[in-house]
Amino acid sequence: MSIDARPASEHPVPAHLAALDDPHAWLEDVEGKDALAWVGERNAHAAEAIESRPGFAATRESIREVLDSPDKIPHVVRRGEWLYNFWTDAEHPRGLWRRTSLESYRTTDPEWQVLIDVDALNAAEGEDWVWHGANVLRPEYRRTLVALSHGGSDADVTRELDLDTLTWVDPADGGFFRPEAKGSLGWIDEDTVFVATDTGPGSLTDSGYPRTVRRWRRGTPLESAELVYEGVATDLAVSASHDHTPGFERDFVARALEFYAAEEYVLRPDGELVRIDVPTSAEIGVHREWLTIELREDWAPVPDGETYPAGSLLATVLEDFLAGDRRVTPLFTPTPTTSLAGGTWTRHHLVITVLDDVKHRPVVLTPPVPAVVGAPWARGELPGVSPMGTIAVGAVDRVDSDEVWLIQTDFLTPSTLSLVDVAAGTEPEPLKSAPAFFDAEGLEITQHFATSADGTRVPYFQVGPTAGSGDSAGSDDPARDADTATSSGPAPTLLYGYGGFEISLTPSYPGGLGRAWLERGGTYVLANIR
Predict the structure, then answer these.
(1) What is the β-pairing status of strands 523-527 and 493-497?
(2) Across-strand partners of 242?
(3) Where would I find the beta strands (DSSP E) of 367-507?
(4) Are 254 and 267 in contact (CB under 8 A)?
(5) How far is it, in rounded angstroms, from Cα 146 to Cα 135?
(6) Which of 73, 169, 268, 428 is in Cβ range 3.0-4.6 Å of 160 for a Cys bridge?
């Protein structure tokens, strides 16, 4: 594509660009009339070239069929005996919040009880609510706090719903209601919540998020709620939460300093705040006795002691750490080819996911009993995991279950949701699977490495015809080549790569690309970064 090289004087140039010695500086005015007109011309030219190709209309409709498919996995979370799901489709664009039993969920057509129909709620109230989530109260699971926003804005309201009667609990009858603002409402017990919201002058940070968090008791005015913590105006936000784990009930306060930096505190029953003294860039997790610390920067917990590199996952006993004991147990230390992708606790185990040359590898860690810093953690594997796929592992109920939800997919296999009993070590029980949108017969996934000038090996994935499955091809028509090419010779190839925001590209099922490219013999390469 050539760039219009007309003299810059023919185009008005904003003052801040006029000093640039560049005849194309006018294109930097991205919202300027001339720049937008040029973009429109180029887009029209490209659209005409693409749409005039033979088979374009059929390919477009085939891809649209994939994108518009209503067949998807209804992912769930367990709360008590119920599995909850939020579902959207063409008939319910704003969504249904519903629940079913595990027994029913195992069937091909589960029986769902609809709790909230957001579209029907909008029609009844004359609103444009968008779902922001629900917080069901343990251990009875009879009440929930529902967050709804106008049109999907960051600001939302929180309302209390009775799950027995499926009716809103009227604030006049003591129901919790948080007016529209950026903030949150979270259960402590059936009659008490933590609230972080706009309560008037001085209650918000410069970013417009809550600066104060309060303990609010049922039946009392929000304005009289007890102040628990107050940040400063330059903070990003503050919040509080309650741990409902039997025998480990406790409260936490979080002070977000910026997007990737926060201070975390334990809030004692007497109101004392005890800082969890880790780097503000670290991400912490608390489960029963244990504190886990994921590092974003190098850190030596003990002065003049061992320094753990950024990317490490450390564990210690929470109460010992709060008392000043800085000993830790390293659970994961990164290498040039490995990084930590995530982790989830079950009742007795910690399942972490390691990216090893950008391939997911789950590891089951079992802490020592009793909880002692320095004692070894047992290590095991999660069965039934694809070596070339992408996985996501989430606890079914970290308080009282050792089961996890396992989601798996790769370039040739649609997403599958399975149930795995980590303690038993049994094979995954497949529950749901997304549909296949293209014929993967004769296709294979391989991984290769490009070596940089400094010797660094950078991985990439290749998806295409199995070697030797046909004649290689190469011409000036990539669309025709893609009908006959194989990995045994030159082949038309789509190359995609991305790197940013700490995101690593991993295999995923490309329904549209599979139909339009892979199924016709094309090759797809997903490039990773250093």
Answers:
(1) parallel
(2) 251
(3) 378-381, 390-395, 403-409, 416-421, 429-433, 443-451, 457-465, 493-497
(4) no
(5) 7
(6) 169
Query: Tokens for 365?
Result: 């860690």
- State which amino acid sits at residue 454: D
Residue 346 sits at the vertex; the CA angle it makes with 162 and 399, to the nearest 5 degrees, is: 35
The reported pLDDT for the residue numbered 501 is: 76
Please provide the size of the chain in residues.
530
- Separation between Cα atoms, residue 201 and residue 354, nearest integer Å: 46
Phi-psi region of 19 (alpha: psi -120 to 50; beta: other; left: phi over 0): alpha
CA nearest 437: which of 413, 404, 409? 413
Residue from 155, 219, 164 nearest 193 by CA: 219
- Which backbone phi and psi does 48 adopt, to 5 degrees? -65, -40
Q: Which residues pair with 503 in a beta bridge?
A: 500
Q: Which of 337, 511, 288 is nearest to 410 (CA)?
A: 511
Q: Map 40-66 to HEC letters.
A: HHHHHHHHHHHHCCCCHHHHHHHHHHH
413: closest CA among 518, 526, 512, 510? Answer: 510
- Mean pLDDT, range 243-270, rounded to an integer: 97
DSSP conformational letter for 466: P
The DSSP symbol for 276 reads -
Contacts with 128 (C-beta within 8 Å, 6 or more apart), sequence order: 122, 150, 151
How far is Cα 120 from Cα 96, in angstroms, rounded to an integer? Answer: 9
> Residue 185: enclosing H or E segment and its boundaries?
strand 184-189
Residue burial 24-56, b: 16+ Cβ < 10 Å; e: rest:
ebbbebeebebbeebeeeeeeeeeeeeeeeeee
Q: How many Å apart are CA 261 and CA 236, to the nearest integer? A: 9
Sequence-distant (≥ 6) Cβ neighbours of residue 66 within 8 angstroms? 437, 511, 512, 515
User: Under a CB-based contact definition with an 8 Å cutoff, are residues 240 and 186 in contact?
Assistant: yes
Distance between CA atoms of residues 414 and 408, nearest Å: 8
DSSP string, 103-159: HHHTSSS--PEEEEEHHHHHHHHT--EEEEEEEEPTTT--EEEEEEEETT-S-EEEE
Task: Return the pLDDT at 503.
Answer: 78
d(CA 213, CA 235): 13
DSSP letter at 224?
G
DSSP for residue 516: H
Residue 1, pLDDT score = 42
Exposed / middle / buried, residue 482 (Cβ in 10 Å: 0-12, 13-18, 19+)? buried
What distance in Å separates the CA atoms of residue 360 and residue 148, rounded to the nearest whole number?
A: 35
Task: pLDDT band for 489, please (50, 70, 90 cuts).
Answer: low
Structural element, H or E, at residue 338: strand 338-345
Q: To the nearest whole percent, how much of the chain has pLDDT over 70? A: 92
- Distance (Å, rounded) from C-alpha 295 to C-alpha 293? 6
Amino acid at 430: P
**CB neighbours (10 Å) of residue 434?**
17
